[in-house]
Write a structure and sequence with these properties.
SKP1/BTB/POZ_sf, binds zinc ion, 3 strands, Potassium Channel Kv1.1, Chain A, mainly alpha, BTB domain-containing protein
Amino acid sequence: MSTTSRIAHFTTPSFVPRAPFDDPGADVILRSSDGIDFHVYRVVLSLASPFFKEMFTLPQPPSEPDVPTIPMAESAVVLDRTLRFWYPGAEPIAMPTLDELRDNFEYLIARYDMQFIVPFAKRQLRAHVQEHPVAVFAISCRYEWKDLAREAAKRSLSVPIRDVCDSPRPPHLNDITADTFHSLLLYHSQCARVATVPTSTLEWINRSDETPGANCTVGGGHSCPHDDRIWNYANAPGRPLVAWFAGHLKRLNATLANSPLARLDSPEVLTLAVKQMAACPFCKTNGFERLAKFTVALQAKIDRDIDSVELELNF
Ligand SMILES: [Zn+2]
């Protein structure tokens, strides 16, 4: 995969480098592709990058001026942004976008081999994992950051990434191979299989007086109808279930099939169950508290079970 063809270049004829890149005491000049000079110290570049270290160890021709100029492939805007990412004393650009980060990594890590920035780079990238989990996964795989790739993959379980028809294409997918993307989809699918089990059976939880709808005495076709199916609990096989709770489990099941770590306590998820529960004189007195308690137990069960699913990364 080409690493340079993806990088954006800008023309900035009026760009004026700010401190510390205007230091007249600096001993080397980096000249951007659009002709702007950045004054820097070669010892700093040498410590940061094996690329520059090797360059400065080469014998210099006698005609070389005291302050040599190194032509750079990057534009002034890009050079300023990438230098500010790590150069001592430089004020960094606040909150770089995902695209800017990706470009920074490509210049600093892939091109100039600045491995020391990796911990900071990962922290910056992690700030985008909530909003762009698949993109963060892809970029992490590009640099073989397994820990962040796994974190991003887990975060992707909160969104229906397998629903490719109705979802926008995640950025930076071309950073990974089809094989790696398949691993992510397989993980997502296996987690969905695991996450939907506790809403299709209640055999993982004991039935008690705290169970939603338990001991509702208004059933039997009156104001609190019951589900057609008989449900098994861990300690109580063959029990009926009030219809509003059974319906809630079915809707949760459908949600979890697409998004295995969807939030189960959001108003969108709970509203219909609460409305239906309120129609029953018995369930409405305690149903919400019982449902909230059940939701906490269900979420914990799903979290535990998903932790047993392995994401295969071939790097
Ligand atoms: Zn009821």
